[in-house]
């Protein structure tokens, strides 16, 4: 028997495995000997990474002047030392990754040393290096005298174009061009003898036909198809002429050699091509005997590989485990019966090229911890087959406890094309946690360490975003390349972390539930108020009660935990009126400073921002305090806040501060004192994922990484917020579980607005009556004034108007405009109440959601919306009806109202047939389930939904046109009422695979439902979609028409835009497309359908000037869509460089002015895409307003300019560069500020984000004329997209939410949390006063009447949540004190008295 201890020691002695330690800037060997550590006293270490050598990257550049990649192709240049009289051929190659570098170098050196027939000069380029101008120029020079070009995996569009630009002109001259799987336009350059691929993707060819057929048969990716083609090569070649067959065979042999990857294979490839196709060598070989090509030395397409196995690979798991369990594990001290087993997915090319050090390192780490491993690979990029073959035993039971994919690619399809459905089904069948770790491809460790952005954007798109759609979690960087040799090197602390986290997930599967410790973490924001248990639209304590019940059912030890919401709240808060600063919040643990410093490795680094521990946050002056309550093995804890909310100086910092000591102590407690097996973060959202650090690809010095460390994290996140959920996944390694937001209902009408509708109804019946008709119009005008509608409708003067003297047309026009306005209010969607986890909507709530789903056309599914079908039955196009409705044409407003009511009636009829006596839906009955209805339809009887539309006044509606939308609504109803949230939480806590699902707006995309799944964003390269481009063009047209009409036909020269991550996910890039449309640029998909190209629209086609833009991207947008920031920047620069008249190109006009003003180039002056610095989020304006931590508006404006003034520059994509002067210079030219509202669930007073990033008063302060810019918002929440002024939007939002009894009564019904929700909207309304000055006085006045003047309401608020009520009183006083609300002295005195009364109540006086 082989002694594997000896093998391991030998490997160690040979220095076979090195890993980089960033702090010491040294390489540390990952000992393969550690696999035998348990039996070998010679090797003692807490880590398998324990042997130091020098760091070859230390001398390299670390930043690259804004480029991500600063490596040098000269490291890959090989020149023949003694060519003699041998003919020399020159090879230039371009590859995506660097693992071929060492094999190519070795192969070329072997030929130069041993071949009598040829010498070889060779130089290689990493694809990403071609962004660098100097490298690109050198590449051109090299290709100009190259004999052979080789390319592989060239899948980045703009770089593929560069390769084609250089190689195509030289193609005919060169002797051979070999391009392996890449973009079609690069593949078309293939040329070897008479064999080409010039028709690839364009017309018929034998190869193309074969590939197409394989794709149809089994969904193969291009590379999979190529591999299958290799296997069936003889069948293909018989259809080709003999000379072409020989050349085609050479190409396929070349591909096999390339896939083989070893120096021997590449030597055979170069020799074969040289002697058969390179002119001088071919000539010199006349009369000589050619070298006979060795057959490619290939590993099996799929197998199990282990670094110290006696056989290179195992083709079945039985043989592997026979060796591994019986020989290896006993020697290595691994207990086969109790050891967890980790499945590891590897990339075959790294094994072929023997570039496997990073793989060996992780295998060693896992085995040193007593774990078994099953490392598998696939020959192509479909890893589903090997997973199915090797991760199950002979009985079909999974043999792994966790899976780690080390390739970084999607499970099926790699970088070119993916099959996410197939991947997630394979992973769900296996049902194990699926982690996708990422090797650095385009950066050395030094470059990654020094980059604030972290992982390269191309890698984020290909190797983070795409695996997430499969259901992958935890994109931990575990390896990178060494700068000089290109070889992969493991990163010691990351490998340790990855091993720790993988085994902790495995532990969740194997540990008995009764022994598991679960830390439920709730949030409190803003802090120091009645806000414990904050989460967007979630009834937190009621939901915790539901989770506790489920935990008890599943056998967890929850001690004496109560199941009553108020009792849970009481136990955590110790008093529902508690404040964090008072001792009334329950203290779970007091951590001495000695214990804190001992258990928190980075504690001293926090002193720079916060001084020595304990500080004054989460502290009793002596100890650090952890708030919460333990029940058995379940701890419910309160996550501390950021800590700088009320500090004006800290809020102004351009970069966010580190967490404070109390925050660090909380997570230290969870991991090291409570010893949680998992943490459940409860609701949207906390602060952990927004702590400082890299955007994506955390290092060990990033605070989210340090805080969560090895704790598995499940995170309940609102389904409508995929962008911030994605930040939580990437930055805090959380597996998300989506929860439903409350169903949106129509806002309805109340008080004077309800009276107005009744008056209008009377007028419609009496409009021809000259006696009563005008009198009713006078009442309508008077009531409209009392409801403050004069600000939204062009009403005649109240004191002088008499409808009797007006024309019938004018009376209709006035009534039509008022009717249109109140119907906008009534039909506005309003999420009512709060959601409780695990409670599906009632039938009534489902109707509200389905009505909104039914209104949208879905052309991609060939589904017409209900309004379109109903309008068609009376000979009208619904878009015409909307247009007439929007301008107040009375007949169209009335028809639109009737259509809306008919749609509701039809949906109600559909839902009623599945509703039980409890008003809930247990099972959805479809149009085909009821046989009585089926036969009734055959006899001419109408379906219930068709009959409902007929009864609503549309007798000619066509039933067959309803079929598509009805079937779709039945599917959606099943999704809406499905209940998977508690199940999703438990699956994660049990160490299972949670199925992925998109996040977003369930009305636009019902695939968001059912909730309770692992939420992901979307493929960033997929946006903007064509549908989004079309909607955006309509919105831009409406905006520019409105602006032109208001300004004597003049267009604005510059518009300031705000872009949000979630909005662009929900709308598939509508606001992104609006930016491009204003500039006059259109996005163009590449040959793989990815949107990463732009084209200038000619001015004559555009029909208007190009409008300049200043784009402020949220920090979340920056993290998720940095490639789209690149797209926008390229588009704007393209417009700036267009040689066009300045009066027709405002982008160029301003960029030229700024270039002169700032002394920079035109391209640099044209930077218009701004955001926060990497790792920082928001302008902190919301934080300041929510916490009262601001002196005046100047402070807020300074915060915005300081924190949002980091420019993205496509010419330097590796950094966000502070460009304060350029930012100010661009903003001072702005005429209009603009934002988008895209869904009913989150409007402009629901969250602080919208005003936090609003630059209206900032622009006013910067403009030379100090004129306030016009402010507009696009509302695409319904099929009838509209553009309104910001003031109109604030009024509409106030009327439908803050001032609406349906809203505030619904919130009050939920108790404690509901009062907080009402106060939040009042505070956010004041936020708009502070940043834009667009809140009417009546909004505050009416809110005061509703919440303060009414003694009964006042008492209810005080009793339910006194802290939140105190905040409400404070907000009213602050609004008055800052000049935003003008009211009576009596009101102010009452508020001051009330404040003192509430203070006494809270203090217990």
TrEMBL record:
Residues 90-252 form the Magnesium chelatase subunit H N-terminal domain. Its EC number is 6.6.1.1. Keywords: ATP-binding, Chlorophyll biosynthesis, Ligase, Nucleotide-binding, Photosynthesis, Signal. One of its GO terms (biological process) is chlorophyll biosynthetic process. Residues 1-19 form the signal peptide. Residues 256-1387 form the CobN/magnesium chelatase domain. InterPro entries: BchH (IPR011771), CobN/Mg_chltase (IPR003672), Mg_chelatase_H_N (IPR022571). GO terms for molecular function: ATP binding; magnesium chelatase activity. It comes from the Eukaryota. It catalyses: protoporphyrin IX + Mg(2+) + ATP + H2O = Mg-protoporphyrin IX + ADP + phosphate + 3 H(+). It holds the Pfam family DUF3479. Transmembrane segments: none annotated. Pathway: Porphyrin-containing compound metabolism. Belongs to the Mg-chelatase subunit H family. This is magnesium chelatase.
